[in-house]
Amino acid sequence: MKLNALVSSLLCSIAIAVQAEEIPQSNIMMAAYDAKRTMTLSFIFHIDEDLAEQDVFFEREPGSGEVYRPTGATREMDAPLFASAVAVPHTPLQIDNVGPWQRGKSLNMTLGEWFAAKGSGTYTCADGLGVVDLEFENLVPNGVYTVWHDFAIWPPTEPFLGFYDTPLGARDGSENTFVADVVGSARFVREIMPCLQLTGEQLISELAIAWHSDGETHGPLTGEFSTQTHVHLYVPLPKRTGL
User: Fold this and answer.
1) DSSP label of 57
2) Closest listed residue to residue 118, CA positions, set 57, 185, 176, 56
3) Percentages helix, strand, coil for the chain, rounded to the nearest 5?
4) Whole-model pTM over 0.70
5) pLDDT category, 34, cuts 50, 70, 90?
6) Torsion angles phi and psi, residue 29, rounded to 5
7) 3-state DSSP call for residue 98?
């Protein structure tokens, strides 16, 4: 009886294996991707969304030593820009948090020069591979920049807790850097896998570029906002298809 049971078990295993080999490959579950998508990217400033500019500051009263974030109501385009003396968190949805703070180092540019920057590009996603192709002009001449994929909970927490910043490309920050030329022009092209996480039902997603006034990149970290790192331009990403 034991021998017969063993033979029956072996025959059953062989039959299952044969059936598995006969299953057409087209019926095997393969990796699924969203349909190919291409979008145009147009970078903006915080003031374009009625927010305070975050990481650069000016003196409302020259020589006072107190600096404020520029807003859409700021008209002093020839005002010198400064860093803050200590780190100020990057929290753009706290729209009334405009200062004052103690003045830090000079950034050697005016508010008008800061707002002269422009950025645009394209983003394509196909079969899990994303391609980001960006062009900029009027950035900080010879400025060291990094590119970030940022997320925040939506609707926002109260108080707003800030963005989660990830380097575009490799997570160690080795692929998200570029340097503007002597007139502030730059191009940044990068392939990424998987594709970008777009805005969803419970989060907002964007790309941002940050200028580093210390001339250094900081690997997987942004560096200290408002003293070393200054977000210059960003672009909100649209909702994922089907939401």
Assistant:
1) B
2) 185
3) 15, 35, 50
4) yes
5) low
6) -65, 125
7) coil
